[in-house]
Task: inverse folding
């Protein structure tokens, strides 16, 4: 019975060698595998033969059928690929496309978020437009408190404020969660500042708050040192001074040595060699009370990191105005 299949095989091989186009391959398929195709006809005629003969024809015929189908597919994809190759000259230089970059503050914010995430902190996003209550009152800054003067505030006509500090998020967290609370709140803040090399009306802070039983200043110092050294990837020189903020008691100013001038003195550090980086302190019992937290049982610390200032330090950007300037020559240097 091979006599029936073998000549067909030869014909198939020859036809496959000759077929160069999609159309020719299609003709080939129809010639052998079509309804009245040469191979189809042989397979249909098996009834005429004895059982043993049928087996051979069936086996060989179907083998040939699969072979033809596979080869056609292969050749078709080769033709397709060649078409593409002819369309695109892969040796030509490509067209350049502009790759975007992240804003330096975004990069610094994400880096710090990673560090705090690693330390078990939650990342919270709270409002940029706040009520007087969250921005001041619940932070132990009642109306007419002189501390309000330190933060020249944008008041909206409806009585709300553009938050002057991410501390405004503290109460939101205390309202939503019960201790232990361990969270950071990064975000944009606004103050009606005269703009110069180190002041902006729109800047970024990152608030941190930890509330649990038995939290002490030691926890605060350790957390700050660990975080800053990870952030700058080197041991950072810090100093602590007493500081006053109505919502912490005791309150501190944590300074780091100026990374721009190495401590010699420059406009960014106002020639002091130190940059005020991180005010912090133990959460005032009144603030805990506003948050409905038992201040006899729980204590906590809070800190307000100047994200914008930190980005200046990290990248050696001497002028704060660069961040909101839209000056892409400066901003695109950071990836
Ligand atoms: N919110 C303060 C500011 O913007 C910074 C601050 C001070 C935050 C002390 C704190 C803190 O959490 O404990 O001036």
Result:
């Amino acid at each position: 019975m091979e006599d029936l299949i073998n000549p067909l095989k030869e014909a198939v091989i020859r036809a496959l060698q000759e077929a160069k186009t999609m159309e020719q391959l299609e003709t080939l398929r129809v010639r052998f595998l079509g309804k009245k195709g040469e191979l189809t006809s042989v397979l249909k005629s098996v009834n005429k033969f004895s059982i043993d003969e049928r087996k051979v024809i069936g086996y060989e015929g179907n083998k040939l059928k699969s072979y033809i189908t596979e080869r056609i597919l292969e050749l078709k994809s080769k033709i397709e690929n060649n078409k593409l190759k002819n369309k695109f000259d892969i040796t030509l230089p490509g067209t350049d496309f502009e790759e975007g970059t992240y804003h330096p503050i975004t990069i610094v914010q994400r880096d710090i978020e990673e560090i705090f995430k690693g330390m078990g902190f939650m990342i919270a996003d709270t409002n940029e437009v706040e009520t007087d209550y969250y921005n001041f009152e619940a932070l132990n800054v009642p109306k007419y408190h002189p501390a309000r003067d330190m933060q020249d505030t944008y008041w909206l006509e409806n009585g709300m404020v553009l938050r002057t500090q991410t501390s405004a998020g503290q109460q939101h967290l205390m309202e939503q969660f019960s201790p232990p609370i361990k969270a950071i709140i990064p975000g944009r803040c606004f103050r009606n500042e005269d703009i110069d090399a180190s002041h902006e009306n729109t800047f970024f802070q990152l608030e941190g708050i930890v509330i649990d039983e038995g939290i002490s200043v030691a926890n605060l110092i350790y957390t700050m040192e660990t975080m800053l050294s990870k952030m700058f990837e080197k041991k950072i020189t810090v100093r602590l001074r007493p500081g006053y903020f109505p919502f912490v008691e005791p309150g501190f100013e944590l300074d780091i040595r100026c990374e721009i001038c190495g401590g010699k003195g420059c406009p960014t550090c106002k020639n002091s060699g130190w940059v005020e980086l991180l005010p912090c302190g133990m959460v005032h019992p009144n603030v805990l009370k506003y948050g409905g937290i038992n201040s006899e049982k729980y204590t906590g610390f809070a800190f307000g990191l100047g994200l914008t200032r930190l980005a200046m330090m990290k990248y050696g950007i001497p002028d704060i105005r660069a961040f909101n300037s839209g000056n892409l020559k400066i901003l695109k240097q950071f990836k």
